[in-house]
Structure formats: structure tokens, C-alpha cells
Amino acid sequence: MSEFSRRDFTRAAGLATALSYSRILGANDRVRMGYIGVGNRGDQVHEAFLEHGDQQTVAVCDLRESYMDLAVQKSRSNPKKYKDYRRLLDDKDVDAVVIATPDHWHAIQFIDACNAGKDVYVEKPLALTVYEGRKMVETAERTKRVVQVGIHRRSAKYLQEAAQFVREGGIGEVTVAKGWHLTNEWPLGIGTSKETAPPSEEEWEQWLGPAPKVPYKASRTYYTFRWFYNYSGGQVTNFGVHYVDMLRWCMGKDSPRSVTAMGGKYVIRDDREIPDTLEVLWDYDGALMVFSQYNANAAPGNIQGAEMEIRGTKGTLYIHSGRWEVVPERHAEIAVPARTPVDRNVERAWGASRKPAMQPVSGKGSNDTAFHARNFLDCVKSRAKCNCDVLTGHLSTVATQIANISLRTKSYLEWDAKAERFTNNAAANQWLHYQYRAPYKLG
Q: What is the C-alpha to C-alpha distance for residues 190 and 268, in angstroms, rounded to an integer?
């Protein structure tokens, strides 16, 4: 299905849903939404919610007036505009909020929103640090808020089918799962910029929030904040959390027991702090997970050109954008005797006796964010658990966060998932959180 027709189909489905709700519930039963951060991804998530007629944009918040103006125009509902997110949370007309600010702001705004009695859709990654994520889980549980973390593949039906197929043994016993983030940013990357006076001291202060006070630099702000550790975990938390979540979902695993990461800024000469080349390896107690970040070369990571692959004893599942497929393994009908010398005759006999271990299987669909928005709206009304609830989002985010700690401490780390501490490197535990700049604190 083309991009145009897919969007039309999703919009039509949203309108049909809206009509059914209007007939059954009436306009007063709309979920009244407030949006904190409406640029870039915030704009995309706002559009996803606008697909559904049983919600209404009643408030928007951003440091940029132009972003808010665009959101107001798209919403067609004359929402109120706020520069301070706390004023939006004080608004009694707001039932639920979307948080799509830079990562270092997620925890404070999320906890404040829950304490204000708002349900929350928070973009991925859930938090900047492990400690923040755990506090977010505890706050959501204490306040009994409905939470959806923006790992939107959880609401894609075809990926739900793929995950169930693997968990039920469809490809046999899984030994390794891999994901790739592949782009070629060489040679300029995000470019270089000089430290200058900020366009607005007040806006720069608000943007930094709990992060350390540093001179203004254009490359630190808006989309490219993801290339700096004070505000983001880089591409392993940005894109990698999608892959980690999908892969551990398929494998039926919660947390790794160890992690190691290697990489660096090897060839791209720009302002970034994060690596341009990275390999992460997690041991998920019976299976390995691998994330590869190659940002100076965009060649496919496997012959299928898939984003992810999961290797089982019966077949390999490849996940592409919009589809998945399983390529069967070929097994021997009889095992080679343990004491037989490995020579050419044995090799030929082994190869000749192979047959497919299973039939090819595939599926296709869409992972449009509108499906994730739909699930959140439904759960706000029913008070059910969302497809990517706060604990699910936390577990997937933690794996990426401890990968960064392994990289930055140059160490192999053993992880106690229950205590959320490293057991073989006390110094690494200092990286699980950082000291907020006064007067910022978790509520």
C-alpha cells in the first residue's frame, strides 16, 4: 500500500471510530489532550492523535511560538497556549498529556503530570537515567495513572503476530537477535557551531532545565540534542530502544544479565559526543542480543536488508518496515556420530541429508503511530494497561542506558535487574543517575 493510501486508510479508520464514539458516548466523552513539546516528534504524535475523533486538543506547550501556532492550526479547536508546562498541568480542562520534549526533561514532567492527576503518553526513550525511569514507574503505580510509552511498534497488529509466533516456538529455540541503525552521516554529521550568546537567555535556561549549565551552542538544541549525553543517550536510546523492545518482546525476556559495548567517534568530524560506530552485546540469559549503530556507512546489515533479525533453531525471522518473514533452516535427518572424524566425506553426507525445518511464514501491516494513540485513548477510558505501559518501556530503556554506561566506562558489566545495580563494578553504579541542577528535582 502506498504511503498516501495508507495514511488515507488510517484517517478513514479514525473517522469511522470517531463516528461510532459520537453515536455511543457523545461529544462530552472526548479525551481532552494537552501537548508538552510540539516540534518534530511532538508534531508527529499530535497528528497521530488527530486521526481519532474522540479526542480534542485543548492545550499546547512549547518554548517556540511557531511550533505552538502550527499545532493550533492543525488541531482546529483553538487550544490554549502555554510557555510553562506547569501551567498546562494546572489546567482543569486537560485530562491527559503527551510529553515529547528532549529526553532529559521526561522524568520531571512525567512525575509532575501524574501528581497533577493526568494520564500520560510519553515519548521514548522513557528517561535519561535508570534512576529516573524507576521513579517514573513508582509514581505511575502510586497515582494509578494510565501510561503509554511511545514505543509504537507494540500497537502494530502484524508485529504483535510476529512476537507471538516467536514466543510460541515458531522458529524454534532462539539463540541470537540483532537490530541495526544504519545511516551515512559522513563527513559532516550534525556540523559544527560555535558557543555564542543564546537568542534568549530565558529560553536557554528553560531548555536546559535540570542539565548542567553550559554555554549556548546551536547544535545542542532541538533535533540534534540527541547527539549529546547531557540530554540524550544517543542513537542506542533513540532508535535502539525500538529494536531492543521488539527483540526482547519476541524472545519473552525482561532484562539482560550482562552487557558490553565498544565503539567511538571514528570518522565524523562534528560536534557530537555520541559514537558514529557502535556495537552492543547483551546476554539475555539463554540468548544474545546485538545492536549495531553504523552512522558512517549505510549498507544493509544482512542479506535481507531487514532492520532486525531473530535466529532460531528452525528458522530466522526478519523484520522489515511494514512486514516480517521467516526463512527456514535446513536440518539433517540424522546427527553425525560424535566420534566420527570431521573430513570431506562427513561434510558431504551432512549437507546432502538436509531438509527444511519448517515452512516459510510471513506477515505484513503498518506500525503507524495512530494505532498507539488509539490504544492510549481506549485505555484512558477503560483504565486498562496500555500496550507499552510504563514498566515495559522502562525495561527496554534500561537495556539501552546500561549499554551506554558500558561504553563510557569501557567495561563489561554484570546487571542485577531486581536491584537495578551493577554487581561487578561499583564505580559504574555512579552513572545510573546524575545531580540535577538547582532548583530542579523529581517531584
A: 9
The amino acid present at 20, given as its one-letter code, is S
Compute φ and ψ for 317, nearest 5 degrees: -95, 125
In a domain, 34, yes or no: yes
Structure confidence at residue 2 (pLDDT) = 35
Torsion angle (degrees, nearest 10) of CA 376, 380, 381, 384: 80
Q: Are 106 and 131 in contact (CB under 8 A)?
A: no
Number of helices (H), then strands (E), belonging to the chain: the values are 13, 20
Same structural domain for residues 279 and 385?
Answer: no
Amino acid at site 132 = E
Cα separation, 310 vs 50, whole angstroms? 35
Say if residues 55 and 75 touch (Cβ distance below 8 Å): no
Q: What contacts 78, CB < 8 A, 6 or more positions away? A: 72
* Alpha helices, H only, 383-435: 390-409
276-301 pLDDT, tens digit per residue, is: 999 999 999 999 999 999 999 999 99
How many other CB atoms are there within 10 angstroms of residue 353's CB atom?
Answer: 13
Average pLDDT of the segment spanning 197-225: 96
Residue 410 DSSP code: T
Domain shared by 140 and 168, yes or no: no
438 inside domain: no
